[in-house]
Amino acid sequence: MTTEMIKITGLKKNYGSLEVLKGIDLTIAEKEVVVIIGPSGSGKSTLLRCMNYLEEPTEGTIVVDGIKLDGEANINEVRKEVGMVFQRFNLFPHMTVLDNLVLAPMKVRGISRKDAEATAMELLGKVGLSDKASSYPDQLSGGQQQRVAIARALAMKPKALLFDEPTSALDPEMIKEVLDVMKTLANEGMTMVVVTHEMGFAREVGDRVLFVDEGRILEQGAPDDIFLHAKEERTRSFLSKIL
Amino acid sequence: MELNFELIQGAIPLLLAGAGITLEITAMSVGFGLLIGMIIGVARLASVKPVRYAANFYVDFIRGTPLLVQIFLVYFALPTIIGQRIDPFFAAICACSINSGAYIAEIFRAGIQSIDKGQMEAGRSLGMTWYQTMRYVIMPQAFKRIIPPLGNEFIAMLKDSSLVSVIGFEELTRRGQLIIARTYASFEIWLAVAVIYLIMTFTVARLVGLMERRFDTK
Q1: pTM for this one?
Q2: Are B26 and B154 in contact, with CB atoms under 8 Å apart?
């Protein structure tokens, strides 16, 4: 087995009296692509957001790349190494695309503007947006914005990427361009955790699929095991509704 | 009733000098107020309770008491505590800055809260600290949105600064009073004072409008 990138033990998360996560144990290996599926409100986004401490767990431990997440200093260390792509892109609207990409590398990693821009241009080429470097986010389509957001996360040279429903806010015709970029990353060996409703992507790219329901991992396995031979009735009924 | 224009003409240079002082005290007060307001506005959003409560108390106290009383507190009450007279100019700037700071704090708080919380999450998840995200992501966007209310605050302070005339500080309103004491031309002089205030507030409103449009197009 390869090295562990993310190790979660006994993770619980409550909002007041509402239990969102009820005990999650999960280990994600380096270069693994894990797809998390499940009904809305099942806790799958919360689980993802705990992995970089955007949500603070109520109980349990999270270790990322050998660093245990607890204090503020630790959290920033981990966040440098784990990028996140959001459903609503969250690009910085007052900056050009290029400035969106160079801000964190310059401020967090202390890289010079020249070097940061060189990396940024390379990444924009990779996501097919070299000509948009000086555009502002609101001049781009949703699909283009999400590709910029992926490039922005990559600019920190992360060891893993978290995707929180990256195509849910997109018009149907733009979903493919974003998924294609994600496929390329997966093929290059990026460790990825993806919360999504794109079952085609899950089957094609995922190494492992987790079905999360009511705050627990109900079932997991290789894509075909889940999609074709799910053991749990809940999984089968969920899949029958969305496939 | 006839207006004595000669009288007005004679008073104009003195009044204009007073208007200059009014502008100066307003600019300084809103300037310091910006600094206070930025800090207090952020403090009102702090997760640390004592910080938040202290900031809330400051804003509630200032907004819940008249500026005139605040000026008296600084000019008359404070010297009895520190055992030393306070210069009217210092007292005026002090009271007006503290007053403006409370209103600007509310403007900042609303401006910061109007920024989508995904912006803070995006900044933080890139490894930037809370301060860095505030500085480079949240504040620049908030600033753009608070230009119009800041302009309003400037105009309000321009008018309210007339209250410092009660401690004998010679800004526009006090100059008017002094000229009237000499000439008894109260109608002419107050009319002239009002027109000068109007010209100043109107000009500032126009300037703010221009700035707004400039920032709107990035």
Answers
A1: 0.86
A2: yes
